[in-house]
Design goal:
Blueprint: H1 2-5, E1 12-19, H2 25-35, H3 54-59, E2 66-73, H4 85-90, E3 93-100, H5 108-116, E4 120-126, H6 133-144, E5 148-154, H7 156-162, H8 167-188, E6 207-209
Parallel strand pairs: 1-3, 1-4, 4-5, 5-6
Antiparallel strand pairs: 2-3
InterPro entries: G_TR_CS, P-loop_NTPase, Small_GTP-bd, T_Tr_GTP-bd_dom
Domain Tr-type G: 10-213
Pfam families: GTP_EFTU (PF00009)
Length: 213
Amino acid sequence: EIRGMMDRKRNIRNMSVIAHVDHGKSTLTDSLVSKAGIIAGAKAGETRFTDTRADEQERCITIKSTAISMYFELEDRDLVFITHPDQRDNTKGFLINLIDSPGHVDFSSEVTAALRVTDGALVVVDCVSGVCVQTETVLRQAIAERIKPILFMNKMDRALLELQLEQEDLFQTFQRIVENVNVIIATYNDDSGPMGEVRVDPSKGSVGFGSGL
């Protein structure tokens, strides 16, 4: 299936996953790998599939950027997001080339290398910790490389089970994170520049919510 998709360039997505350290990049990537059928769902989050080095497994941090190719088929309800007729009519399948990059500040060069070979960046933010120092750094790196960021609020289970936030408090927390991310984007991106406006907005499908586990 992956080999067949390689000839359909419009159905290929090259993306990198960037975030502050310990915000759940590798665990979220495990869930995506599991969804693609590469590892068992029960092992997602424990395997740390993209942490291939022994020192990464031992220290539970990503040191080197690691790429993986996955085949996904869209559900019928998601086809509304596909606007190009060549993509909608011929197949619901997509080839995702994903790079899991480090979150630690000492390995920022690995993040830059990952961004330079991808078309988009998934910015993972722990919805309890919020926007952190390295979140701003990786966003700045993405914009400098003209890579459009998409926000994913991770660890929703912590907000619901540990903090037990009420609905209004939860909404305010999410709104604050989106605003903080957009402030960083506005600081480093010029809307009249080559990328145009890249602010994230849940109503435009550029903000996701979930949990890597």
